Amino acid sequence: MNKYLKNIVLFSLILFLANCTTTAKKFSKKKENCKKLHTYFTQSKDCLGLSFQTYYDKKNTEYEKQHDIIVNAISDQIYQNIITNDQGWEVYEDIIKDFTDADDKAKYLTNVIYRFK
User: pLDDT 10s digit of each residue in the chain, 117 long?
Assistant: First the structure.
């Protein structure tokens, strides 16, 4: 019986980890679709926001608000000619990659927001 319980726990853990990876991959595909549909980062804000909300909002509604602040901050830097459109996409992709890897996602997003101030 004990061996059976260990197998169930191990299977559940593997399934959980696979589901986390799947969420990141699905969002990455949506992000790429937004990039193809809207060449300019500043025009993709709604698309990125909806895609992010679809995959991460279930876990924490605060993520969505923080994501929108970050996307707007990147857009503002593009509008002000501080960074180029390509640099904006690179910054966003780096942020999302690090967000996916972060243990404390809310804290990570908060730190990113402070970096833009």
Answer: 566 666 565 556 555 555 554 566 666 777 787 888 888 999 988 888 888 877 665 556 778 889 899 999 999 999 999 999 999 999 999 999 999 889 888 899 999 999 887
Alpha carbon separation from 115 to 32, 46, 55, 83 (Å, rounded): 25, 22, 24, 15
Domain residue extents for the chain: 24-116
Report in angstroms the alpha-carbon separations of 17 from 11, 22, 57, 63. 10, 9, 18, 20
| pTM across the whole model | 0.72
